[in-house]
Amino acid sequence: MTDLTSIASNGPARKALLSLPLARSFLTVLFSTLLLLLTCVLFAPSSLSSGALSGSLPFAAIIAVVGLGQLLVVQQGGFDLSLPGAVSLAVVMATHYPQQDDALLYQAVLISLFIALVAGLLNGILVSLFRLNAIIATIGTNALLYGVVFAVSGGVPSITTNLLATIAGGQTFGVPNSVAFALAATGVVSFTLKKTVAGRRFEAIGANPLACQAAGLRVRTHQMMAYVWAQVLYCLAGTLIAGITREPTAFQGDSLLLPSVAIVVLGGTSLLGGRGFPISTVIAAFFLNQLSQFALTVGVPFSAQTIIQALSLGFGIGIYSFHWTLNARPSTGAKKVEEKQ
Predict the structure, then answer these.
(1) 161, 109 in Cβ contact below 8 A?
(2) 307-318: per-residue pLDDT in tens?
(3) pLDDT tens per residue, range 144-176
(4) Is 282 exposed, middle or buried (0-12, 13-18, 19+ CB in 10 A)?
(5) Domains of the chain (ranges, CATH numbers)
């Protein structure tokens, strides 16, 4: 079998993978975040107080985790619209199954993880094997997941267990535990994508699946696993939400779909698939969450948060589309060569 390095070093796959360098995406989102923090200091300093940050950082961590899951799917050129149902199901299982009994929490988490793996396999099989459109396939899976949510909860919220509240909602050395979970997930995803052979193959397949299939790589397997690992991350996010929120509803995942796509785009990942940027995506999650906090502090109603997220998504698509347009233009020397030919 041809080694991935030879595939991506000389052929069109390497050009696709390197079309948006890490430095550019990282610096863009980092500069935007620093500019936002400066704006907060000048116009809404209370949004950066210790109390405000301790209350908002856990939710930024949640957005980061679901964004990492969405990132894996977007790298394969798809969208995972089953995210709301997956997160909501993890929330419901972590609260309704134990019924405030700490001894049953581990069973609830294992059941949630099992369902997440099944849902991921279902999405992966429908998209990679049956060639179903990713949006249609994941919408169907989302409906099935919400069916389980209603069967377990009946649409009624339940109080979380004390153990989960301590693990997910507690702090260690002044840092919310949910942030530590998010950073751990970021480390695992980033290391796997950037430092392992499987990760490099995964990115190469997302950039050019036809070339990789011709080279003998297991394209369908990698595409399927993107949805499986995404569901695992959604399960982690839902479990964290169940611990952070004392009495979460059965629809906690509904508000996370748009932010998950927005931070993937703001982090510099192409919606056409290919190379992904986990660290930039996590920084974008903090940016988007802090932007919402700033808007609330200056008096923007909570109902406008979706509009803010949509504008952020549009901003991300616009700025990176501008970069891609510039990169796609041939240089002056290339134009002269074309004219001579």
Answers:
(1) no
(2) 887 887 777 777
(3) 999 999 999 988 899 999 999 999 999 998 899
(4) buried
(5) 22-327 (1.10.3470)
